[in-house]
Amino acid sequence: SGESETVRILLKHNIGATKTKNYHDCPYGNMTPLQVLGAWWRRMDMEFTPNKNIQCIKDMIGKDEHYTERWKNTCLLVKAAYHGTVDTIQSDFRMVHACAAMEECVSSTVLKLAVEMYPEQLSEADENGHLPLALAILAGKSFQDHVQILLEACPSALSRQCIDGRFYPQILSFLGQNGSISVLFGVLKEKPEIVGVHPTNEKKRKRDRI
To answer: 37-69: string of b/e by CB count within 10 Å (b at 16+)?
Structure first.
């Protein structure tokens, strides 16, 4: 009921609206509905106490009708953009996987909130056997935003998923410069062999297997 039901009805009649941008002279000009909501969540993220913001927002969802409806709308738009439908689909819809895999811009705040809301999805494989971390890497998502969020939340995904070795040096380099020591330790604990992977060695191993 409420605002989210109106959004669902509108999307059922025009699923392509997820990619339609506003007019340039609007307050959120030249942005898709999902980008507009992403900007709103980012603003809310900045208003709460530092380091507790996402948890505070999560607590508001379910308690405050405005936040609850905004989150329902966000999930509807992500589902519509990712699956091309807001109807029931054969495989269960996983918000974290969709945010990680979508080529369309999904703000890092929305991904962080999805991880906070559905932490169990971090270790669940989709219908193709991919975890969210692998989906983000395959989609070419930013290491500074999306990949780091998923690594921090679930370092064990590196040991559970077959990820192209070419990405390991990038992961280590980024974590060494920008990540916390605890995250770097968690990654090395789960995947100690990562320190011995070099792009040229990875190519050689692939040639040897052919």
So the answer is: bbebbeebbeeeeeeebbeebbebbeeeeebbb
